[in-house]
Protein backbone atom coordinates (compact mmCIF):
# COMPACT_ATOMS: atom_id res chain seq x y z
CA UNK A 1 0.00 0.00 0.00
CA UNK A 2 1.29 3.45 -0.94
CA UNK A 3 0.45 6.10 1.63
CA UNK A 4 1.90 9.48 2.43
CA UNK A 5 1.62 11.10 5.85
CA UNK A 6 -0.11 14.45 5.60
CA UNK A 7 -0.61 15.28 9.27
CA UNK A 8 0.96 18.73 9.00
CA UNK A 9 0.71 20.72 5.77
CA UNK A 10 2.30 24.14 6.21
CA UNK A 11 1.60 27.18 4.04
CA UNK A 12 4.71 29.23 3.30
CA UNK A 13 4.46 32.66 1.61
CA UNK A 14 6.09 32.62 -1.80
CA UNK A 15 7.07 36.25 -1.51
CA UNK A 16 9.30 35.59 1.52
CA UNK A 17 12.67 34.13 0.51
CA UNK A 18 13.70 33.59 4.13
CA UNK A 19 10.52 31.61 4.80
CA UNK A 20 11.13 29.42 1.76
CA UNK A 21 14.61 28.66 3.05
CA UNK A 22 13.44 28.09 6.64
CA UNK A 23 10.86 25.59 5.41
CA UNK A 24 13.70 23.18 4.64
CA UNK A 25 14.24 22.62 8.36
CA UNK A 26 10.62 22.53 9.56
CA UNK A 27 9.40 18.97 10.28
CA UNK A 28 6.10 19.32 8.41
CA UNK A 29 4.90 16.38 6.34
CA UNK A 30 4.13 18.70 3.44
CA UNK A 31 4.66 22.30 2.39
CA UNK A 32 2.43 24.52 0.29
CA UNK A 33 4.49 27.31 -1.27
CA UNK A 34 1.86 29.97 -1.73
CA UNK A 35 1.34 32.33 -4.66
CA UNK A 36 -2.23 33.26 -3.76
CA UNK A 37 -3.56 34.76 -0.52
CA UNK A 38 -0.22 35.56 1.14
CA UNK A 39 1.14 37.45 -1.88
CA UNK A 40 0.18 41.02 -2.79
CA UNK A 41 -0.80 41.69 -6.42
CA UNK A 42 2.34 43.72 -7.09
CA UNK A 43 4.50 40.83 -5.84
CA UNK A 44 2.87 37.99 -7.80
CA UNK A 45 5.51 37.78 -10.53
CA UNK A 46 8.50 37.94 -8.20
CA UNK A 47 6.94 35.41 -5.81
CA UNK A 48 6.33 33.03 -8.70
CA UNK A 49 9.98 33.23 -9.66
CA UNK A 50 11.16 32.76 -6.08
CA UNK A 51 8.96 29.72 -5.52
CA UNK A 52 10.03 28.11 -8.77
CA UNK A 53 13.69 28.77 -7.98
CA UNK A 54 13.23 27.18 -4.55
CA UNK A 55 11.54 24.06 -5.94
CA UNK A 56 14.16 23.73 -8.66
CA UNK A 57 17.00 24.05 -6.15
CA UNK A 58 15.52 21.40 -3.86
CA UNK A 59 16.75 20.71 -0.35
CA UNK A 60 13.33 19.98 1.14
CA UNK A 61 14.10 16.37 1.97
CA UNK A 62 11.20 13.93 2.08
CA UNK A 63 8.58 16.61 2.54
CA UNK A 64 5.78 16.60 0.00
CA UNK A 65 6.08 19.85 -1.93
CA UNK A 66 3.09 21.69 -3.41
CA UNK A 67 2.64 25.08 -5.07
CA UNK A 68 -0.61 26.97 -4.59
CA UNK A 69 -1.40 28.93 -7.74
CA UNK A 70 -3.84 31.80 -8.08
CA UNK A 71 -7.45 31.04 -8.93
CA UNK A 72 -8.68 29.89 -12.31
CA UNK A 73 -10.47 33.18 -12.94
CA UNK A 74 -7.45 35.31 -12.00
CA UNK A 75 -5.04 37.10 -14.31
CA UNK A 76 -2.15 35.00 -12.96
CA UNK A 77 -3.54 31.47 -13.26
CA UNK A 78 -2.08 30.39 -16.59
CA UNK A 79 1.36 31.82 -15.89
CA UNK A 80 1.35 30.26 -12.42
CA UNK A 81 0.38 26.87 -13.81
CA UNK A 82 2.98 26.93 -16.58
CA UNK A 83 5.73 27.96 -14.18
CA UNK A 84 4.74 25.37 -11.55
CA UNK A 85 4.52 22.57 -14.12
CA UNK A 86 7.96 23.46 -15.44
CA UNK A 87 9.64 22.88 -12.05
CA UNK A 88 7.64 19.74 -11.20
CA UNK A 89 6.45 19.88 -7.59
CA UNK A 90 4.60 16.92 -6.12
CA UNK A 91 1.32 18.79 -6.37
CA UNK A 92 -0.35 21.98 -7.51
CA UNK A 93 -2.99 23.42 -5.18
CA UNK A 94 -5.89 25.08 -7.02
CA UNK A 95 -7.98 27.51 -4.93
CA UNK A 96 -11.74 27.88 -4.99
CA UNK A 97 -12.62 24.78 -6.98
CA UNK A 98 -16.41 24.92 -7.13
CA UNK A 99 -17.40 22.46 -9.86
CA UNK A 100 -16.03 19.66 -12.04
CA UNK A 101 -15.72 22.24 -14.82
CA UNK A 102 -12.92 23.89 -12.84
CA UNK A 103 -11.02 20.62 -12.79
CA UNK A 104 -11.61 20.22 -16.51
CA UNK A 105 -9.92 23.59 -17.03
CA UNK A 106 -7.00 22.43 -14.91
CA UNK A 107 -6.76 19.19 -16.88
CA UNK A 108 -6.56 21.12 -20.15
CA UNK A 109 -3.65 23.18 -18.85
CA UNK A 110 -1.87 20.06 -17.59
CA UNK A 111 -2.22 18.57 -21.05
CA UNK A 112 -1.18 21.69 -22.93
CA UNK A 113 1.90 22.15 -20.75
CA UNK A 114 2.75 18.41 -20.87
CA UNK A 115 2.92 18.19 -17.12
CA UNK A 116 5.12 15.42 -15.68
CA UNK A 117 3.10 12.41 -14.58
CA UNK A 118 4.08 12.82 -10.92
CA UNK A 119 2.29 16.16 -10.49
CA UNK A 120 -1.04 15.77 -8.70
CA UNK A 121 -3.82 18.29 -8.11
CA UNK A 122 -5.11 19.36 -4.72
CA UNK A 123 -8.46 21.12 -4.93
CA UNK A 124 -9.36 23.75 -2.35
CA UNK A 125 -12.97 23.51 -1.19
CA UNK A 126 -13.87 26.93 0.14
CA UNK A 127 -17.10 28.16 -1.44
CA UNK A 128 -20.79 27.43 -0.89
CA UNK A 129 -20.94 25.92 -4.36
CA UNK A 130 -18.09 23.57 -3.45
CA UNK A 131 -20.25 22.27 -0.60
CA UNK A 132 -23.16 21.64 -2.96
CA UNK A 133 -20.90 20.11 -5.63
CA UNK A 134 -18.55 18.19 -3.31
CA UNK A 135 -19.55 14.75 -4.56
CA UNK A 136 -19.29 15.73 -8.22
CA UNK A 137 -15.91 17.37 -7.67
CA UNK A 138 -14.51 14.31 -5.90
CA UNK A 139 -16.03 12.02 -8.53
CA UNK A 140 -14.06 13.86 -11.22
CA UNK A 141 -10.99 11.97 -9.99
CA UNK A 142 -12.56 8.81 -11.44
CA UNK A 143 -14.51 10.18 -14.39
CA UNK A 144 -11.82 12.59 -15.60
CA UNK A 145 -8.49 11.08 -14.53
CA UNK A 146 -6.64 13.72 -16.58
CA UNK A 147 -7.46 16.23 -13.82
CA UNK A 148 -5.17 14.21 -11.49
CA UNK A 149 -7.21 15.06 -8.41
CA UNK A 150 -5.60 13.56 -5.31
CA UNK A 151 -6.51 15.70 -2.28
CA UNK A 152 -9.33 17.97 -1.10
CA UNK A 153 -8.12 20.93 0.99
CA UNK A 154 -10.72 22.70 3.10
CA UNK A 155 -10.67 26.47 3.42
CA UNK A 156 -13.07 27.66 6.10
CA UNK A 157 -11.94 31.29 6.07
CA UNK A 158 -13.37 31.90 2.61
CA UNK A 159 -16.33 29.67 3.39
CA UNK A 160 -17.11 31.77 6.47
CA UNK A 161 -16.84 34.95 4.45
CA UNK A 162 -19.19 33.76 1.71
CA UNK A 163 -21.78 32.06 3.94
CA UNK A 164 -21.59 34.64 6.78
CA UNK A 165 -21.40 31.76 9.24
CA UNK A 166 -19.57 32.53 12.48
CA UNK A 167 -16.45 30.55 13.32
CA UNK A 168 -16.56 29.68 17.03
CA UNK A 169 -14.70 27.06 19.09
CA UNK A 170 -16.05 23.68 18.09
CA UNK A 171 -17.04 24.95 14.62
CA UNK A 172 -20.67 23.90 15.09
CA UNK A 173 -21.93 25.87 12.09
CA UNK A 174 -19.33 24.26 9.83
CA UNK A 175 -19.63 20.62 10.90
CA UNK A 176 -22.20 19.60 8.24
CA UNK A 177 -19.99 21.09 5.51
CA UNK A 178 -16.80 19.56 6.89
CA UNK A 179 -18.36 16.11 7.00
CA UNK A 180 -19.74 16.60 3.48
CA UNK A 181 -16.18 17.13 2.26
CA UNK A 182 -14.87 14.13 4.20
CA UNK A 183 -17.63 11.89 2.82
CA UNK A 184 -16.98 13.09 -0.74
CA UNK A 185 -13.27 12.41 -0.41
CA UNK A 186 -13.72 8.98 1.11
CA UNK A 187 -16.26 7.98 -1.53
CA UNK A 188 -13.63 8.40 -4.23
CA UNK A 189 -10.41 7.54 -2.44
CA UNK A 190 -9.11 11.07 -1.89
CA UNK A 191 -7.24 12.41 1.11
CA UNK A 192 -8.92 15.33 2.86
CA UNK A 193 -7.08 18.07 4.75
CA UNK A 194 -8.76 20.21 7.38
CA UNK A 195 -8.54 23.99 7.24
CA UNK A 196 -6.04 26.23 9.01
CA UNK A 197 -6.45 27.45 12.59
CA UNK A 198 -5.93 31.20 12.57
CA UNK A 199 -4.80 31.94 16.12
CA UNK A 200 -1.36 30.31 16.05
CA UNK A 201 -0.62 31.57 19.58
CA UNK A 202 -3.53 29.56 21.00
CA UNK A 203 -1.86 26.16 21.39
CA UNK A 204 -4.69 24.68 23.47
CA UNK A 205 -7.36 25.72 20.98
CA UNK A 206 -5.29 24.40 18.11
CA UNK A 207 -4.74 21.06 19.83
CA UNK A 208 -8.48 20.74 20.42
CA UNK A 209 -9.20 21.45 16.75
CA UNK A 210 -6.59 18.88 15.69
CA UNK A 211 -8.33 16.29 17.87
CA UNK A 212 -11.64 17.25 16.30
CA UNK A 213 -10.14 16.96 12.81
CA UNK A 214 -8.92 13.47 13.57
CA UNK A 215 -12.27 12.42 15.02
CA UNK A 216 -14.05 13.77 11.93
CA UNK A 217 -11.84 11.63 9.69
CA UNK A 218 -9.44 14.16 8.20
CA UNK A 219 -6.00 12.95 7.11
CA UNK A 220 -4.25 16.07 8.32
CA UNK A 221 -4.47 19.79 8.83
CA UNK A 222 -3.20 22.80 6.95
CA UNK A 223 -1.13 25.17 9.07
CA UNK A 224 -0.14 28.81 8.94
CA UNK A 225 2.75 28.87 11.41
CA UNK A 226 5.73 26.56 12.11
CA UNK A 227 4.83 26.45 15.81
CA UNK A 228 1.74 24.43 14.90
CA UNK A 229 3.67 21.60 13.26
CA UNK A 230 4.66 19.63 16.36
CA UNK A 231 1.12 19.54 17.75
CA UNK A 232 -0.38 18.48 14.41
CA UNK A 233 2.23 15.75 14.01
CA UNK A 234 1.47 14.44 17.48
CA UNK A 235 -2.32 14.60 17.52
CA UNK A 236 -2.95 13.51 13.94
CA UNK A 237 -0.66 10.48 14.12
CA UNK A 238 -1.69 7.01 15.24
CA UNK A 239 -0.71 6.23 18.82
CA UNK A 240 1.72 3.45 19.72
CA UNK A 241 -1.22 1.36 21.00
CA UNK A 242 -3.15 1.87 17.75
CA UNK A 243 -0.14 0.84 15.69
CA UNK A 244 0.43 -2.25 17.84
CA UNK A 245 -3.25 -3.23 17.50
CA UNK A 246 -3.11 -2.74 13.74
CA UNK A 247 -0.10 -5.07 13.52
CA UNK A 248 -1.96 -7.68 15.55
CA UNK A 249 -4.99 -7.48 13.23
CA UNK A 250 -2.80 -7.96 10.17
CA UNK A 251 -0.93 -10.87 11.75
CA UNK A 252 -4.19 -12.51 12.81
CA UNK A 253 -5.64 -12.42 9.29
CA UNK A 254 -2.38 -13.73 7.85
CA UNK A 255 -2.38 -16.76 10.18
CA UNK A 256 -3.06 -20.10 8.42
CA UNK A 257 -6.29 -20.76 10.34
CA UNK A 258 -7.72 -17.39 9.26
CA UNK A 259 -7.29 -17.88 5.53
CA UNK A 260 -10.56 -17.41 3.67
CA UNK A 261 -12.33 -15.95 6.67
CA UNK A 262 -14.10 -12.60 6.58
CA UNK A 263 -14.43 -12.32 10.35
CA UNK A 264 -12.18 -13.53 13.15
CA UNK A 265 -12.19 -13.37 16.94
CA UNK A 266 -9.23 -11.42 18.29
CA UNK A 267 -9.05 -11.09 22.07
CA UNK A 268 -12.81 -11.34 22.33
CA UNK A 269 -13.44 -8.73 19.65
CA UNK A 270 -14.97 -9.47 16.27
CA UNK A 271 -12.60 -8.17 13.59
CA UNK A 272 -13.55 -8.02 9.92
CA UNK A 273 -11.56 -7.76 6.70
CA UNK A 274 -12.40 -4.07 6.54
CA UNK A 275 -10.50 -3.66 9.82
CA UNK A 276 -7.52 -5.40 8.23
CA UNK A 277 -7.62 -2.90 5.37
CA UNK A 278 -7.70 0.00 7.83
CA UNK A 279 -4.85 -1.59 9.77
CA UNK A 280 -2.67 -1.84 6.66
CA UNK A 281 -3.14 1.84 5.96
CA UNK A 282 -2.30 2.69 9.59
CA UNK A 283 0.92 0.70 9.34
CA UNK A 284 1.81 2.09 5.90
CA UNK A 285 1.56 5.67 7.15
CA UNK A 286 3.36 4.90 10.42
CA UNK A 287 6.20 3.25 8.51
CA UNK A 288 6.37 6.21 6.10
CA UNK A 289 6.70 8.61 9.04
CA UNK A 290 9.54 6.56 10.52
CA UNK A 291 11.29 6.28 7.14
CA UNK A 292 11.07 10.04 6.63
CA UNK A 293 12.52 10.76 10.05
CA UNK A 294 15.47 8.48 9.28
CA UNK A 295 16.29 10.40 6.09
CA UNK A 296 18.88 13.19 6.23
CA UNK A 297 17.28 16.60 5.94
CA UNK A 298 13.83 15.26 6.78
Brief overview, please?
The protein has 298 residues and is an alpha/beta fold. The chain has helices at 17-22, 44-57, 77-87, 100-112, 128-132, 134-143, 156-163, 175-187, 203-216, 229-235, 240-254, 273-294; strands at residues 8-13, 30-34, 64-68, 91-94, 120-125, 149-154, 191-194, 220-223, 263-266, 269-272. It contains twelve helices and ten strands.
Description:
The chain is of the alpha/beta class and 298 residues long. Helix content is 46%, strand content 16%. The protein has helices at residues 17-22, 44-57, 77-87, 100-112, 128-132, 134-143, 156-163, 175-187, 203-216, 229-235, 240-254, 273-294, and strands at 8-13, 30-34, 64-68, 91-94, 120-125, 149-154, 191-194, 220-223, 263-266, 269-272. The strands form two sheets. Strands 1-2-3-4-5-6-7-8 form an eight-stranded parallel beta barrel, surrounded by six helices. Strands 9-10 form a two-stranded antiparallel ribbon. Helix 2 runs parallel beside helix 3, helix 6 runs parallel beside helix 8 and helix 11 (240-254) crosses helix 12 (273-294). The chain is globular and about 65 Å long. The two termini are 22 Å apart. The model has no long low-confidence stretch (mean pLDDT 95).
The profile of the biggest β sheet is:
8 strands, parallel, barrel
Q: Output the helix-strand order.
A: EHEHEHEHEHHEHHEHEHHEEH
Number of strands: 10
The rounded Rg comes to 20 Å
Taken from the alpha-carbon principal axes, the silhouette is globular
Helix and strand arrangement:
Layout: E1 8-13, H1 17-22, E2 30-34, H2 44-57, E3 64-68, H3 77-87, E4 91-94, H4 100-112, E5 120-125, H5 128-132, H6 134-143, E6 149-154, H7 156-163, H8 175-187, E7 191-194, H9 203-216, E8 220-223, H10 229-235, H11 240-254, E9 263-266, E10 269-272, H12 273-294
Parallel strand pairs: 1-2, 1-8, 2-3, 3-4, 4-5, 5-6, 6-7, 7-8
Antiparallel strand pairs: 9-10
Helix pairs in contact: 2-3, 6-8, 11-12
